[in-house]
Amino acid sequence: MTTTAVAPLTIEDAELLVATARRAAEDAGVAVSVTVLDAGGHLLAFRRDDRAVLISGETSTRKAYTALQLNAPTADLVDAVQPGGLFHTLPTALDRPLLFIAGGVPVHRDGRLVGAIGVGGGAPDQDHGFATAAVQALV
């Protein structure tokens, strides 16, 4: 059996993700915090805007962690955690509580999960747009 190595998410990739999300947020007049995790859930890059709500740093980290753990954009998971949803009873006793608010997006390379980005500080749809724009910059 042949396996193909997938390049991991690098510090340079993480810095590009942060810069792109920050630039998109600034263009929209929004102050955000941005977190980038590698495939193992380790912090690769983080930026908190001092003008953002203080909790935005923790929010961006939890969004990235949720996107990484479930390998899905957090925007796609909101309905799943509502009563009657697929994840309504999903335990949150993981290393870090999950956060089902738009703004967390997994990062894939060659079809494999290599990390995640989380953006917090704007409205959920804005955060999702900033994170998505950042991931598209890696392509």
TrEMBL record:
Provide the taxonomic classification.
Bacteria, Bacillati, Actinomycetota, Actinomycetes, Kitasatosporales
Which PANTHER family does this one have? Answer: PROTEIN GLCG, SLR1406 PROTEIN
**What is the official name of this protein in its record?**
Heme-binding protein
Tree of life domain = Bacteria
Gene3D superfamilies annotated for this entry?
Answer: Haem-degrading domain (3.30.450.150)
One protein family per Pfam: HbpS-like
